[in-house]
Design a protein that fits this description.
Layout lengths: L1 H10 L8 H6 L4 E2 L29 E2 L15 H11 L12 H4 L47 H10 L12 H9 L2 H10 L9 H12 L8 H6 L9 H10 L6 H4 L22 E2 L19 H4 L7 E2 L22 H9 L4 E2 L6 E2 L17 H12 L4 H5 L17
Parallel strand pairs: 1-2
Antiparallel strand pairs: 3-4, 5-6
Helix pairs in contact: 3-7, 3-8, 5-8, 10-14
């Protein structure tokens, strides 16, 4: 199976995926499913209203996927994942009870958001688009442009307790948060089981550990692309998608330089991997004043490093399920896949007027991979067909990743 997959990778020009031996060394538990995470646990199993999920966690890795890195101080367990799933979908994780993690990361959109930029629980608008969480376990860094956020445990605290902007609004409200969580019967059972031996399992650190554990299970690898490349189904990709794959991996279009490997991004981390590198790119979306500047506060890596050369540099997101995650770019300013292709074909975006006016292709900070290219209408359609072939319908319908709370929710009047 692995040898056939490698041959097929070469045959259709899909370079950059880990070699079969590399995947084996990484400890892959490989088996092909449309998207198989197993059956969801019953909320009526075991203790009343609490899933019977004690025991070790068994990874259900899609074929061709290595094992994600898991921090030593937060080992995976089935009950911890289930606790994290409950917390992820629970609006009690916002101070005013109006939003959960899933509010900005709905499963139906591959855990991305349809808004250009997010709106927090207090109504405060955010400057950035909520990134999709599919395969987030493999990201070298988290969020669009923060090289300091290296684990999901760290990142989970940002929407919960961040003040600029306010997302879930829990800063200084920890006593109220835990009063609500302790009052819920499911949590009264799940927290001690997820963190046995602790005098009090209801802590901020454990909330972050549980949510991070659930997010590591958001694995997407059941697309038509996967069925052909890793599953050996030579009919899975349409002829248009195959032509699009050749274009995607051509030096003319350059797409594969930033979107490569099994997760279609150049910033990937997994068990057994060698050296790590966090990469960020200026895609010439803006060129204010001809200096390459981006509008504040979205200056990318520059906002953290303060270095002029980091202006406008953002992480290249995974392209898995990209057809489901519009709008695109860090600020959601590119509406469709066709618009995204046109942006790169032009070698950068031209903003004709207004405060953000500028010609992106003339940016002195533009990535060397953003050179522009000529593309026919048929080629453009084929490239989009390939990008659409990265959608995983099983992932967005998987009941094991879905909201575990009854609907209408049992705690709506809390």
């Amino acid at each position: 199976m692995r040898r056939a997959a490698s041959a097929l990778l070469l045959a259709i020009g899909l370079a950059g995926c880990p070699a079969p031996s590399e995947l084996a060394d990484a400890g892959t538990d490989a088996h092909l499913h449309d998207h198989d995470h197993g059956e969801p646990v019953s909320p009526d199993a075991g203790t009343p209203d609490v899933p019977a999920v004690d025991g070790a966690y068994a990874w259900r890795l899609p074929t061709g996927f290595p094992r994600p890195v898991v921090p030593a101080d937060n080992p995976m367990s089935a009950v911890k994942v289930e606790l994290g799933r409950h917390l992820f979908y629970d609006p009690r994780l916002s101070d005013n009870g109006t939003q959960s993690c899933a509010s900005c990361h709905p499963q139906a959109r591959a855990f991305a958001e349809e808004r250009a930029t997010s709106v927090g629980s207090t109504g405060q608008s955010h400057p950035r688009n909520a990134m999709g969480l599919a395969n987030v376990a493999y990201n070298t860094t988290l969020t669009w442009a923060n090289p300091l956020l290296l684990t999901l445990e760290q990142q989970t605290l940002v929407p919960m307790f961040g003040r600029g902007p306010v997302e879930l609004g829990l800063a200084g409200r920890e006593p109220q948060l835990f009063a609500r969580l302790r009052a819920e019967a499911r949590y009264a059972a799940l927290f001690p089981r997820a963190f046995p031996g602790e005098a009090d399992a209801f802590t901020v650190a454990n909330v972050a550990r549980a949510v991070a554990s659930f997010e590591r299970t958001l694995l997407s690898g059941g697309s038509a692309y996967d069925r052909q490349v890793y599953g050996g189904d030579t009919t899975a990709l349409s002829e248009a998608a195959r032509r699009g794959a050749e274009l995607f991996n051509s030096e003319r279009l350059e797409c594969f330089h930033c979107h490569n490997g099994f997760n279609f991004t150049d910033s990937t981390r997994y068990e057994g991997q060698g050296s790590l590198e966090a990469r960020f790119h200026n895609t010439a979306l803006y060129n204010l004043g001809g200096t390459g500047a981006y509008p504040a506060p979205n200056t990318g890596l520059h906002a953290i490093s303060g270095r002029a050369e980091d202006m406008g540099r953002f992480r290249a997101p995974s392209l898995r399920n990209v057809a489901l995650t519009a709008p695109y770019m860090h600020d959601g300013s590119v509406a469709t896949l066709a618009d995204a292709v046109d942006h790169y074909a032009a070698g950068g975006r031209t903003v004709a007027s207004g405060p953000n006016a500028g010609v992106g292709r003339e940016s002195p900070l533009r990535s060397g991979f953003i050179t522009g290219f000529a593309i026919t209408a048929d080629e453009r359609a084929s490239l989009i067909a390939f990008l659409e072939s990265l959608s995983d319908p099983g992932f967005v319908r998987d009941p094991a990743l879905a909201d575990p709370w009854p609907s209408p929710c049992e705690h709506c009047d809390d």
